[in-house]
Amino acid sequence: MTPTRTRKDDLAALHQAKERLCLGGGAERAAKQHKDGKLTARERLELLLDRDTFQEMGIFAQHRATYFGMAGKDLPADGVVTGSGKVGARTVYVASQDFTVAGGSAGEVHGDKISVAMQYSLNTGTPFVFINDSGGARVQEGIGSLAGYARVFYHNVLLSGVVPQISLICGPCAGGAAYSPALTDFIIQTRYAYMFITGPAVIRQVTGEEITSEQLGGVRAQMDRSGVVHFVAENDVDAIKICKRLLSFLPSNNLEDPPRGDQDKRHFRDDALNQVVPAESKLPYDVREIISRIVDRSDFLEVQKEFARNLVVGFGRLVGRPVGIVANQPSVLAGVLDINASDKGARFIRFCNAFNIPLITLVDVPGFLPGIDQEHGGIIRHGAKMLFAYSASTVPKLTVVIRKAYGGGYIAMCSKELGADRVFAWPTAEIAVMGAEGAAEIVFRHEIAAADDREARRRELIEEYRETFSTPYVAAAARLVDDIIEPAETRGYLATALDSLATKRVLRPTKKHGNIPL
Description:
By secondary structure, the protein is of the alpha/beta class. Helices cover 39% and strands 17% of the residues. It contains 20 helices and 17 strands. The protein has helices at 7-22, 27-35, 41-48, 108-124, 143-159, 179-182, 200-207, 213-217, 219-225, 236-249, 287-294, 339-354, 372-376, 379-392, 407-412, 436-443, 445-450, 454-469, 472-477, 490-500; strands at 55-57, 80-87, 90-97, 128-132, 165-169, 172-174, 186-190, 194-196, 231-233, 301-303, 311-318, 321-328, 359-365, 397-406, 422-425, 430-432, 483-484. The mean pLDDT is 92.
């Protein structure tokens, strides 16, 4: 007589099945993961999500492949853990690839699980966090794996501009898999990870060049050179810490305002700002010192810190309100705008606009970088992205002209004509078509040539031009500057302006979208 199964037996079987699935590829592979300096997929989610808030979706999911030994092969959770949880008491949807299961390879069901989590993120208006650690497409599934990838890419685009998307690269992310992070808003990569489209073996075969995965797609390559990565993390723990900090500045979706933090009660006046900018206009300084004195508690999260360092972008708070900051960096290339800086700035501006984050622009720009490499590289097209991004933005836009604001650079850094709601200038501001030296050579070339002491006359005329056109008072008289302020009072002026613009609403012509010069 066959023993009758009891409810107790069923519950025990359920718990045993889940315990087995939660082990992923097993203790040995988990130990290998730890030896390589990495956490497992579930350990990463435990660190990311608030305690006891994770609800998994699809733990029993299995592939349907039958070719090349795949029939009946057990792949726990099909190599990716998906579901929802909370970060700082706010809901997020997550996907975490499990490298201990078939190297985290992505097949059709694997991709479908990620897409379903993304769809719920879209439906509920909550951020999506994708932790990447995968050997790439599951070749045994052929085009099924490609279809799974394609659905993920499609959902990346659906979510874009609706909910924040953050990718963590905590292991390999190669081939087509790299395009999903590229379609998200921010990429955080650890020093143990790498990402590229074509690997060292393919490059060696095609070009004969010997190159390592680190050289090709490590953090230095993808941050410093390509600008693909936005944050570099020391390890998985640091990557998750950065992710949490980043989420704290962002709204859950495009219909919400960013979460307001505690108001910094610090007095609005800071006399140290009166001394930051050198008296000599050609001497450099670090604009991040100004930023740290403007934002609450000097808390500034810089984005793409090591890429296009002549432009600084990132998030801070002003009297509790999250703001996006765009600033020329005079200590690098004198703060000029070039191809990479334009791309960096435009993308950040568009993100802030999509998610209702006000923009503060700090200007000290001598113009666009001249040179044949820049021209042939398309500086006209890339520089136009800055013009497009600022002009298209409808969030509150505050501009502070600190020192130089010359030519096209002045316009591109959110001038009044590009829709800046408030433009303040420090007394040190020089707003002009070009620097006084260059302008004097053009405007007064005949007078200089006719002078007995050409150099003395040249210096005299340079000063005359500077006093006539390069001061902020001329721009203020033309209403291109709303007020000339003492540097020490900058934080107070910005906070008051931001408060007065909190209910700003702008109606634009009806259209699908503009055609940004990509």
